[in-house]
Protein: Raffinose/stachyose/melibiose transport system permease protein
Organism: Devosia subaequoris
Amino acid sequence: MTRRASILGGAAAIATTFVVFVIPFIFIVLMAFKDRQQSALRDFSWPTGFHLWENVAEVVKTRNWMMITAFINSTIITVVSVTLLVIFAAMVGYVLARRKTRWNGLIEFLILAGLMVPPAVVPTIWLLQGLKLFGTLHGMILIEVAYNLPFSIILYRAFVATIPRDLDEAAIIDGARPLDVFFRIVLPLLWPVTVTNIVVQSVGIFNDFTNPLYYLPGNANATVQLTLYNFQSQFSTAYNLLFTNILLITIPPLLVFLFFNRQIVAGMTAGAVKG
């Protein structure tokens, strides 16, 4: 590839990123600063007055402080789900990479099926109702873990393959038990891919809209994405409050990506080449 082609490709990538990500975010910020009358125009005009703090206060207080409840629920679901994902995926990925049995092919097929096959909503609701977990936070946590586990397992399996088996054998010779080998030797070495998994899954689960809509009904169980319904109806929408709400729930994932961008890339590529 010539230098000119490389420069043109980089410029095209920057332009595409600006159009797809930066311009919509600027539009969200502008709308959050407007009052209800000006925001109804839905254009890129400069705000005639700065109403951001008024809009934020209204968003937070709406429907008996639902935004606070939603942030608490989303945080609980995200933290617990990601913790379980890291533990379970790391253990499964370690076993798949270290132990070659006749069942590995079937297990890997089921993991790939979990990535490709869309979830069946109605049977899942019936199952949750039978287990008395429908409409509960711990039921929602199990759903998030089940839906995101295949991707996490694939990440860990690829990374564990780059860790020499000699470390396991040396630890066993020194008297370490299998769980000691995993938690004391292998798991600390998985830190790069663990950071990647934590960040990617945290952002995905925190921003999840569809699953809480299906499996977590009720105002007391609202998550941050479901609060968007507070400011739109069939006949009227408060666009200034709606976009202020969008801005509030966008900032946490955005900060996570900005601070952990390098770790995400490093973790995703760490298992690409087997050592």
User: Anything to note?
Assistant: The chain has a mean pLDDT of 87. The chain has twelve helices and no strands. The CA atoms of residues 114 and 150 lie 6 Å apart.
